[in-house]
Specification:
The protein has two domains: about 1-80 and about 160-240, P-loop containing nucleotide triphosphate hydrolases (Rossmann fold, 3-Layer(aba) Sandwich), CATH 3.40.50.300; about 90-155, no CATH class. About 30% of the residues lie in helices and about 30% in strands. It has helices at about 40-50, 70-75, 95-100, 115-125, 140-155, 170-190, 200-205, 225, 230-235, and strands spanning about 1-15, 15-20, 25, 30-35, 55-60, 65, 80, 160-165, 190-195, 210-215, 215-220, 240-245, 250-260. A six-stranded mixed β-sheet has the order 7-8-9-4-10-11, sandwiched between helices. Strands 1, 2, 3, 5 and 6 form a five-stranded antiparallel β-sheet that branches. α4 (about 115-125) packs antiparallel against α5 and α5 runs parallel beside α6 (about 170-190). It is globular and about 60 Å long. The mean pLDDT is about 95.
Length: about 260
């Protein structure tokens, strides 16, 4: 089942096209990972799909409707995004930050309702951040902060969550912690997760569906067996990769690689 897809999408800045004639689908209730070299259009695609930026032509459809014509609050109840570098939360407590996720549901003077407080507490509990509720966000570790930002996205109560490089600046343990949390949200709550990752082995391990981009175009889209291959990685990253098997998951993994140098 597919609720969200793009059709012949073109996105650019000025006269320079970053994403070109792109038609991709994001499977519902699955984890989709977008991979590709820096500047290939991964983050641009996420921003356009969540209407942070506009697109030049083509269309992005959710539940059969153009997102460009959707009411902002209605759209914010369907999808949430965690950007690559979330804005500073200096001076805010964890509970205050997570409460911002309730904005799409607020009316009048924007006061939080009993339901809002219940959802905030639920989001904190699910992400394992309840103990930090009254602590300043900027007093937390990188992994803790990232979980708090995810809690804010969860408080939005959306079916679809976009994350742009959610493991950036985190050490190996915290990267795994965040990815396992997202996997849990997908498996236990049926959340559709769409994220950009740089680590190919993390993409293979956690994604149900992978979209490989190069210069704003799809090179290959499919499951990890189809995308994490010598030929696809050669075309996307210009590397000569040795593909093996993850001894714990049995999924393909990039064991080592060399750069393919030009003439």
């Amino acid at each position: 089942m597919v609720r969200l897809y793009t059709d012949e999408l073109n996105i650019g800045y000025g006269e320079r096209l970053i994403v070109k004639n792109l038609s991709v689908s994001f499977p519902d209730q699955k984890i989709t990972t977008i991979i590709g070299a820096n500047g290939c259009g991964k983050s641009t695609l996420l921003k356009a799909a969540t209407r942070i930026i506009s697109h030049q032509s083509g269309s992005i459809l959710l539940d059969g409707e153009l997102i460009s014509k959707e009411n902002t609050k209605v759209l914010a109840r369907k999808m949430a995004i965690l950007p690559q570098s979330p804005e500073s939360a200096n001076g805010l407590t964890v509970g205050e930050l997570v409460s911002y996720g309730r904005f799409p549901y607020q009316t009048g003077f924007g006061r939080l309702s009993k339901k809002d407080y219940e959802v905030i507490d639920w989001a904190l509990e699910v992400t394992g951040t309840s103990e930090f509720k009254y602590r300043p966000v900027d007093a937390l570790s990188g992994g803790q902060r990232q979980r708090v930002w995810i809690a804010m996205a969860l408080a939005q109560e959306t079916d679809i969550i976009f994350l742009d490089e959610p493991t950036t600046y985190l050490d190996m343990a915290h990267q795994l912690e965040v990815l396992e949390l997202l996997q849990k949200l997908n498996l236990e709550q049926g959340r559709t997760i769409v994220m950009v990752l740089h680590d190919l082995n993390q993409a293979a391990r956690f994604a149900d569906y992978i979209i490989a981009l190069k210069d704003g175009e799809v090179v290959k889209a499919g499951n990890c067996e189809e995308v994490i291959s010598h030929g696809v990685l050669k075309q996307v990253f210009q590397i000569d990769a040795e593909i093996g098997r993850d001894p714990r998951t049995g999924k393909p993994m990039c064991c080592t690689y060399n750069l393919i140098k030009g003439d």
